[in-house]
Amino acid sequence: MKDNSLNNFEGLNVLVTGADGFVSSHLCEALIKNNANVTALLKRNSSGIFKNIDQFKEKLIVRWGDTQDLSLLHDMTKETDLIYHLAAQSHVGHSLYNPYETVFNDIISTLNILEVSRKNDVKRVVHAGSSEIYGDPKSVPIDETHPLQPRSPYAAAKAASENLLESYHHSYKLPVVMSRFFNIYGPRQGLDQVIPKFILQALNDHDITIYGDGTQTRDYTFVSDVVDAYMLLGTTEKIEHKVMNFSSDKELMIKDLAEIIIDLTKSNSKLEFDNQLRTGETPRLLGNSHLARELLGWKTNVSIEEGLKQTIEFFQERKDLVDNLKFMV
Ligand SMILES: NC(=O)c1ccc[n+]([C@@H]2O[C@H](COP(=O)([O-])OP(=O)(O)OC[C@H]3O[C@@H](n4cnc5c(N)ncnc54)[C@H](O)[C@@H]3O)[C@@H](O)[C@H]2O)c1
Which domains does the chain have, with CATH numbers? Predict the structure, then answer.
């Protein structure tokens, strides 16, 4: 019989799905530092290359597999206390061209995680939700009561995943926690996201391409603040079935973001506007993370300038990756 408390991470059996992704890799590092036994589920590939966890893979229990594989997950979670379910096809643009891949992958993966958690008495499932499910905000700042109006298959799959969590909580009393993160950035982020793209363009003095007129806003949280949030979501008592936003509660125009990056990199890049927002792109995002502050005592510690400096430092050593940008969606 498993002990039912989740007081701290010492000796806790934790599964992180999609563990070599951008956010999960940082989360795995924090869990290791807190002496958790971390099983890292990585999507099968034949290259043998560990994307973002190479430097600390020896401290993880690495399992190659797929969250769409129910029997594998079932065997893997027999002794698991806590699951962080971050595996997803995580790119909005990719989901527009590959709706079936995104929807099947993201929804079936979540369903499998819930099903094995129920069968194996996992003590808590933390789901990586997204502010994308709010769509075009009816009002800002966006709190958790804002209606859900997903505008992309990615967002729809995230909303459906949350509904599944909700249903498992009601039907089986499964202890689930639902997070909704606004835009995250930091070292190791994929090149298909705006901040790595702008940084690489700036570091190479290439013009920075901006969709639309650049007045669209985003609400950015640095990855270490996100990891803090996940750590609190893992162990804070009495938060089962809660839905919480995580945001900086500050709005930044994309053109201003580009200017800050140009400034910090001392770049000669110019802004180039292509005057069309991409399909599914939200013109305004500004979160309200009051509930997370109240329930978890969470707050952001890293300013946008400081976070960008750390991210620029990471990409400085990889600035040749700029050549790969033309292959990204
Ligand atoms: N980055 C953000 O701004 C942001 C904001 C809100 C929510 N999220 C969510 O947080 C999570 C992590 O985001 P990220 O930016 O680190 O994304 P990421 O793409 O870097 O990481 C996702 C990982 O999941 C893996 N994966 C996908 N399908 C899988 C499967 N079937 N089996 C096993 N692994 C699988 C991928 O290989 C990848 O390594 C995602 O669920 C994402 O949707 C991200």
Answer: 6-185+221-246 (3.40.50.720), 194-218+250-285+302-327 (3.90.25.10)
